[in-house]
Design goal:
single chain, 281 residues, MetI-like fold, 2 domains
């Protein structure tokens, strides 16, 4: 009789837990679907040849596009990815494979946790103080530095956590064959967890792709088409912020189009990575 009561109690607890989980998932899916529906309904109409090949229009004028902002965002995010990816992955490998009893590793983990929780505007002000104010002008390089400081902690934390999930038996098998520790870490452990590591990189790219505050203090903006990273450069998040707050209908429509473009790009990157690496496995 006692066992039946315990079984029924556990069954009720399981039912309540599953029900609450399903409700939470349903609410999240409703919110996500609502956001995507609004973005598509308001932003898709802005997609045309002018949107992708013309620069931002002057205030109150018709037409124009976001070509300068699209190119500027691609340049800054690509530069940020090239800088932050090797630094973040190597730091994550060090923390996972070498940092069990290291004071430097503990300090690195603390700094990483602090930077993960730091507001992006603080990072932008920091880069403004140490770089922009010294060189006396805004630039794409300053924006790259700010976004890299946001991306590195995400990659470090994700890489460390993923590498710790690799079974120790794989390490022991490699050591038994006489491989040195650095070679085991790079060619065996990192290779085994490459799917998760790349997912971490994509998470970092997804985060920095929509950041506005750091770029306001570093890259600023540029109404004209420019590929000079040593000068102010236009980016999609900043243009969306400025156009969405404007009273001009044309600018607001372009802002919706830019928001939809960022959303579809990040969503497409994640889907591509998951499908590609699932097929490779």
């Amino acid at each position: 009789m006692k066992n039946i009561k315990i079984y029924n109690s556990r069954k009720r607890s399981n039912f309540i837990g599953l029900s609450l989980s399903m409700i939470a998932m349903t609410l999240g899916m409703i919110a996500l679907t609502w956001i995507l529906f609004v973005l598509i309904s308001k932003g898709f109409s802005a997609f045309n040849s002018n949107f992708f090949f013309n620069s931002t229009p002057a205030a109150g004028s018709a037409g124009g596009g976001l070509a300068n902002a699209i190119v500027g965002s691609l340049m800054i995010v690509a530069s940020c990815t090239l800088i932050s990816t090797p630094i973040g992955i190597l730091a994550g490998v060090y923390l996972s494979e070498y940092g069990d009893r290291s004071k430097i590793a503990n300090i690195t983990r603390l700094v990483t946790d602090v930077m993960l929780s730091a507001p992006s505007i603080v990072i932008g002000l920091f880069v403004y103080a140490i770089y922009v104010s010294k060189v006396k002008h805004f630039s794409g390089f300053a924006g790259t530095i700010a976004l890299s400081l946001l991306a590195v902690p995400v990659i470090v934390k994700t890489t460390e956590n993923i590498l710790r999930l690799v079974p120790n038996t794989l390490r022991e098998a490699a050591y038994a064959l006489g491989a040195p520790k650095w070679k085991v870490s790079i060619t065996v452990i990192l290779k085994a967890a490459k799917s998760g590591v790349i997912t971490g990189v994509l998470l970092a790219v997804a985060r920095v792709s929509g950041e506005t505050a750091p770029l306001l203090f570093t890259a600023l903006n540029n109404q004209f088409f420019s590929t000079d990273m040593n000068k102010p450069i236009s980016t999609l998040p900043v243009v969306i912020y400025q156009f969405a707050m404007s009273p001009y209908v044309n600018w607001i429509n372009l802002a919706w189009g830019g928001a939809l473009l960022i959303t579809l790009t990040v969503l497409g990157l994640n889907i591509f990575a998951r499908v590609f690496f699932r097929e490779k496995r």
